[in-house]
Specification:
This protein starts with a helix and ends in a 16-residue tail after the last helix. The chain has 4 helices and no strands.
């Protein structure tokens, strides 16, 4: 399988796990509710493991920028849809810049996941 597919797939799953964990963190009410608390801990553990898989083939700064930026966008959408939170114009503009930054990194930067950085191998 193409190393970039593994790298970006692991990063996408890390983002999803982190988003689920953070959503559950709010629902855990400071870890006083068992099920949301367990989802939070498990979600963050999965997210960090998958992020570590990503770091085998992607520089940490790039991976973290994509991970945190995408997480911010997803959690803002969840906040609007689930928790009925409102964003003002400044927040929307800031989120737009985050999306723009992620796009620039992925489309224009040659620093993303490459076969030459740390190749993913079965036996390193």
């Amino acid at each position: 399988m193409n190393p970039s597919v593994i790298t970006y797939g692991a990063l996408a799953l890390a983002i999803i796990c982190e988003t689920i964990a953070t959503t559950s963190l709010k629902q855990s009410e400071q870890f006083t509710r068992l099920v949301p608390s367990l989802i939070t801990v498990f979600g963050y553990a999965c997210a960090f493991y998958l992020l570590s898989v990503t770091l085998k083939a992607m520089p940490v700064g790039i991976a973290y920028a994509i991970w945190s930026g995408a997480g911010i966008i997803l959690l803002s959408i969840i906040g609007i849809v689930i928790y009925k939170q409102r964003l003002d114009l400044s927040a929307c503009i800031g989120l737009g810049f985050i999306v723009l930054g992620i796009l620039i990194i992925n489309i224009m930067s040659k620093t993303g996941a490459t076969d030459n950085f740390y190749p993913l191998r079965a036996n390193p």
